[in-house]
């Protein structure tokens, strides 16, 4: 760490951020009016330090849950409806059927589909209310709705009920998305109540579900700080996180909002030391609009983001109690060494990175932007097991996530200070790196490993040789390119243009199925998704294998074309 970086981190203080966390711990930020109150406080605190803030006011389509309950056998069961459940304040009555499923054991399975695709349960589900293990999540609700359910009950893993959202639509729907907007009544219940309801289902009983929902268009405040760099002011790092939360949401995401605010204050104070710019934003509509705020921003500034954004950095759930480690840390492969060095320098900890999930305001994949961080530090697996915790999607692993228990005690001052410094250092280094600190050779290594796994699964039914050859050729070109960067044969300006252009090609081919500037559903996207059907050929033995192979052919064509396009970009600058 150089002297400028040390001086920058010495400016980081808990005075303002902890004040914000304490304030946010006193009021809920679910309804847009309450979210606006939180936005106004962030803006006021920043302006008190002379920071210039622009407040956008997008019109977002949101779903705000109210009360819910289940009535059965003369008893009332407590429940919470997820955002985008249908309103059923007059009650939905029906036969209850239990369809067993495994509880989620990581963030992907929290949000993904629940049933094995070979399992035929339509005849059991159609026209009935389904109860099953899991959070009332997009994959679960969509799958049971597709199978004909009129209502869905998710049995949460413990005694608490977690708030959530059940639409697969990412952000405000457009006309093409509208058919995927949920059309069933959904709720979540605690595990003890779920077990009792399972017995009612096994006895062939009926139940009545009640939900109160408010759905529609809401004008929402969205603050943005643009800190202009001195050398390449048009280029910027985008740092962001959500401000709306469930209940008071201290660990998810008051601590993140405080982190963004303090990084904005410190970088503004030191803006004369920035080479590139830094853009910082607080999102509304994360919880009640499936990332509606960040999606609006991605849509509204799409062309500017495409031309000028060098990286996007998400900040969710930093500074939580017991969150000492950096495990399962979201990052794209090309950023791995860069963030590992920042974490080592700030925290003295190793980094265990993983592929970013289809979650957490990663609303920029279809534009093609290198990305790192989502959920922040977390507790160890050993501590989670010791406490009997199950997998959740935030709060540093604390199961207070998305419940009324996510209160001030979830935040930890020392860990928050460390995590703020980490975000500040990573963003500052990214903005000031002479050559953008992303190594695309790590990405091509990832591609080759993925292709190898897919080929093994496909066996002799399909040849992924063209994909492998194209990835190997790109990797070889990248070796020459980075050698030229190191030797000075390729100038920093030229290198940065190529590194950014590669993101526009390789991020979409690895993280999206939809066309650029559209948004994939809020469901897991496998690596290199255009050829991922190679892993599913065993399921296509009932006359559909030919269709699957046709899809693989088309997907491989798209992948090979992208890899060759990337290779041409690299070879433009490779030394002769």
UniProtKB/TrEMBL annotation:
It comes from the Bacteria. InterPro entries: Peptidase_M28, Peptidase_M28B. The lineage of its organism: Bacteria, Pseudomonadati, Pseudomonadota, Alphaproteobacteria, Hyphomicrobiales. It holds the Pfam family Peptidase_M28. Residues 228-416 form the Peptidase M28 domain. This is M28 family peptidase.
């Amino acid at each position: 760490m150089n002297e400028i970086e040390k001086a920058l981190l010495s400016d980081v203080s808990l005075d303002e951020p902890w004040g914000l966390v304490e304030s946010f711990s006193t009021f809920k930020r679910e309804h847009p009016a309450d979210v606006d109150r939180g936005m106004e406080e962030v803006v006021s605190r920043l302006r008190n330090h002379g920071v210039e803030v622009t407040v956008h006011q997008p019109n977002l389509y949101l779903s705000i849950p109210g009360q819910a309950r289940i009535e059965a056998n003369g008893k009332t069961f407590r429940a919470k409806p997820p955002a985008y459940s249908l309103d059923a304040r007059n009650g939905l009555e029906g036969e209850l059927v239990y369809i067993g499923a495994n509880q989620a054991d990581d963030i992907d399975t929290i949000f993904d589909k629940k049933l094995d695709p070979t399992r035929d349960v339509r005849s059991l589900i159609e026209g009935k209310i389904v109860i099953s293990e899991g959070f009332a999540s997009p994959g679960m609700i969509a799958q049971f709705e597709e199978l004909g359910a009129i209502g869905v009950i998710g049995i949460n893993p413990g005694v608490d009920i977690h708030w959530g959202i059940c639409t697969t639509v990412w952000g405000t729907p457009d006309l093409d998305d509208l058919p995927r907007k949920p059309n069933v009544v959904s709720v979540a219940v605690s595990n003890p109540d779920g077990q009792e309801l399972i017995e009612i289902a096994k006895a062939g009983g009926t139940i009545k579900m009640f939900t109160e929902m408010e759905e529609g268009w809401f004008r929402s405040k969205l603050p943005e700080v643009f800190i202009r760099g001195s050398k390449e002011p048009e280029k910027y790092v985008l740092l962001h996180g959500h401000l709306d939360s469930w209940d008071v949401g201290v660990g998810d995401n008051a601590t993140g909002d405080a982190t963004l605010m303090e990084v904005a204050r410190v970088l503004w104070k030191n803006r004369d030391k920035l080479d590139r710019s830094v853009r910082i934003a607080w999102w509304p509509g994360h919880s009640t609009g499936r990332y509606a705020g960040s999606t609006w921003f991605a849509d509204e500034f799409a062309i500017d983001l495409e031309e000028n954004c060098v990286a996007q950095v998400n900040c969710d759930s930093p500074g939580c109690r017991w969150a000492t480690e950096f495990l399962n840390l979201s990052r794209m492969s090309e950023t791995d060494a860069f963030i590992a060095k920042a974490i080592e320098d700030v925290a003295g900890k190793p980094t265990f990175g993983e592929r970013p999930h289809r979650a957490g305001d990663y609303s920029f994949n279809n534009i093609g932007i290198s990305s790192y961080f989502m959920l922040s530090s977390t507790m160890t697996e050993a501590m989670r097991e010791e406490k009997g915790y199950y997998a959740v999607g935030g709060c540093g692993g604390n199961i207070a996530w998305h419940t009324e228990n996510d209160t001030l005690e979830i935040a930890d001052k020392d860990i928050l200070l460390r995590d703020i410094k980490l975000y500040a250092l990573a963003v500052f280094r990214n903005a000031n790196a002479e050559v953008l600190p992303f190594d695309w050779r790590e990405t091509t290594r990832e591609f080759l490993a993925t292709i190898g796994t897919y080929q093994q699964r496909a066996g002799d039914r399909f040849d992924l040789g063209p994909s492998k050859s194209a990835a190997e050729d790109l990797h070889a070109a990248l070796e020459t390119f980075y050698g030229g960067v190191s030797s000075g044969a390729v100038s920093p300006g030229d290198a940065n243009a190529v590194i950014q252009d590669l993101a526009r090609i390789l991020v979409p081919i690895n993280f999206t199925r939809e066309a650029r500037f559209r948004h994939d559903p809020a469901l897991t996207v496998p690596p290199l998704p255009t050829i991922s059907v190679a892993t599913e050929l065993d399921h296509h033995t009932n006359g559909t294998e030919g269709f699957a192979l046709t899809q693989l052919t088309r997907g491989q064509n798209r992948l090979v074309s992208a890899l060759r396009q990337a290779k041409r970009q690299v070879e433009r600058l490779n030394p002769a």
